[in-house]
Amino acid sequence: MGEDPLIAAVRSGDAKAVAALLAAGADSNAVDEHGTPALCLAVDAFDLPVVEELRMSDPPVRLNCTAADGRTPLLRAIDRGACEITSVLISGGADLWRTDAEGRNALELARHWHLTGAEAELRHRSGTSGPVARRAVLDGWGNVCEELSLGGLTVRDGHAAILTELEPRYGIAPAFEELMGRALAEPDVDRPVWWSTTITLQGRHAPAVWAEAAALRDRPNPLERYCGAEVIRLVHLFDESDDSPFDVPLVDLFLPWAAREEDPRVMRALAAGLAEAMDPRAEQPLPALTRHRDREVRRRALSGLHRLIAQGDPEALAAAVARTHDADALVREAACTAVAQAAADSAAPSDALAACLHDEVEAVRVAAAIRLFLRDDPRGDEVLRSLGRIDQDSPYFAAFHDVWYHPRALGPAD
Fold first, then answer.
1. What is the mean pLDDT of residues 164-185?
2. Which of 384, 385, 358, 387 is nearest to 371 (CA)?
3. Mean pLDDT of all residues in 23-42
4. What is the mean pLDDT of residues 391-407?
5. Which DSSP state fits 13?
6. Where are the ANK repeats (predicted)?
7. CA–CA distance from 127 to each of 146, 150, 151, 157 (Å)?
8. Domains and CATH numbers, the chain
9. d(CA 122, CA 112)
10. Which residues, 6+ apart, have CB-to-CB distance to 380 below 8 Å?
């Protein structure tokens, strides 16, 4: 008897095949020859797309299924250090109180990995004393993680982020300094522990959190300053109050801070916060920040110029047009979006976009072409037609929404 087609598709990491098989009636709870459910196999392979397909199946997959070792998919994801898969399983309703062979629930298992350390636990489980193979990988959400392999076992270093996400679900709220300490242990602010830490602090909705974050602005350690700026930015960003109570205080704090800040990581948070603010004062430093040495600062500053450009501000428009020649492709792409906010009957912005149709990076060409199309300028139509059919797997699928629903249809080539 051959292998179950769904199990074979899961093992090969073919999310499209998994989706097709599920749509045709395949059992999402199928198991392999060892009794391991398909969902557990996908978790073990760090395969978020397949996990998502199984999670969304109809009838639904059993999120708390277990293999021969008794571990649920959630416990397996925590063991693997797969923070994005852990988040998906938790949001889907995975049982947080199931335990592993040692009697540890999800929180206790995450805390064990965090306190022991990924390398030490990996050595313990594998019983191997040789060198640990390490490599940087992108997780299912595009975050950079370190993957460690030894003795046939592979884990990722997401346990601090997982622990930080789990604690509030068990009613645990570590002190601000304790949470920040977890993040500070990782110097790369783009790693998952930084997002987990700052979003957890933001979610407390306590005045003391704002005060503690603001007090970090004068710390000599730039990572502490970054933590403070990012927490404040997120408090403002996710506030749902009708009167936007954090808008003016954020600008009051960020304007003088940005004027003296030298660390590019901190400036990213400050630039993003100013770009997201509604207080008109926040726009003052943004044109100059589009020339900052850090590409992410430039990109975030551009996102805050849209209103000024739409209002006809010449300095803001000139800053955005200049960045269409930036050395970084992501900045050029952001510049195309910003430039397009200018009045549709303005020739200079359209000409700047048309010049980007010859960019060496396809994403920039497409961004420019879409903006021209929406301005009823046909100069970018050929770039759009050359992409062929745009489906959900295309990186341009979301961007094409406005093209498909625009009164002017994208006709075939002459």
1. 97
2. 384
3. 95
4. 91
5. T
6. 1-33, 69-101
7. 21, 9, 8, 19
8. 1-62 (1.25.40.20)
9. 12
10. 353, 354, 357, 365, 368, 369, 370, 371, 372, 373
What are the pLDDT digits (tens) for 264-307? 999 999 999 999 999 999 999 999 999 999 999 999 999 999 99
At 414 the pLDDT is 52
What are 110-153's pLDDT values in tens digits?
A: 999 999 999 999 999 999 888 999 999 999 998 899 999 999 99
Strands, sheet with 133-138, edge to edge from the N-terminal-most edge strand = 133-138, 144-150, 153-156
How far is residue 318's CA from residue 396's CA, in Å, rounded to a whole number? Answer: 27
Whole-number Å distance between alpha carbons of 58 and 24: 11
Amino acid at 330: L
Question: What number of other Cβ atoms are within 10 A of residue 322's Cβ?
Answer: 15
Give the span between the Cα atoms of 329 and 64, in whole angstroms.
Answer: 43
Cis peptide before 59 (omega within 30 of 0): yes
Q: List alpha helices for 129-221, DSSP H.
A: 159-166, 176-184, 192-202, 207-214
Question: pLDDT tens digits for 71-118?
Answer: 999 999 999 999 999 999 999 999 999 999 999 999 999 999 999 999
Q: What is the predicted pLDDT for the residue at 395?
A: 92
CA distances from 269 to 213, 237, 274, 296, 303 (A): 13, 12, 9, 10, 13
Comparing CA positions, the residue from 379, 378, 384, 386 lying closest to residue 400 is: 384
Measured distance CA(165)–CA(142) in Å, rounded: 18
Neighbours of 147 (CB within 10 A): 18
DSSP conformational letter for 4: P
pLDDT of residue 411: 73
**How confident is the model at residue 1, as a pLDDT?**
53
333 class by beta-carbon count within 10 Å (0-12 exposed, 13-18 middle, 19+ buried): buried
What's the pLDDT score for residue 306?
Answer: 96
Residue 142 burial by Cβ neighbours in a 10 Å radius (0-12, 13-18, 19+): exposed
- Residue 413 confidence (pLDDT): 59
Name the burial class of residue 388, with classes exposed (0-12), middle (13-18) and buried (19+) by CB atoms within 10 angstroms of its CB: exposed
Sign of CA dihedral 109, 114, 119, 121: negative
Torsion of CA 42, 138, 17, 28, to 10 degrees: 30
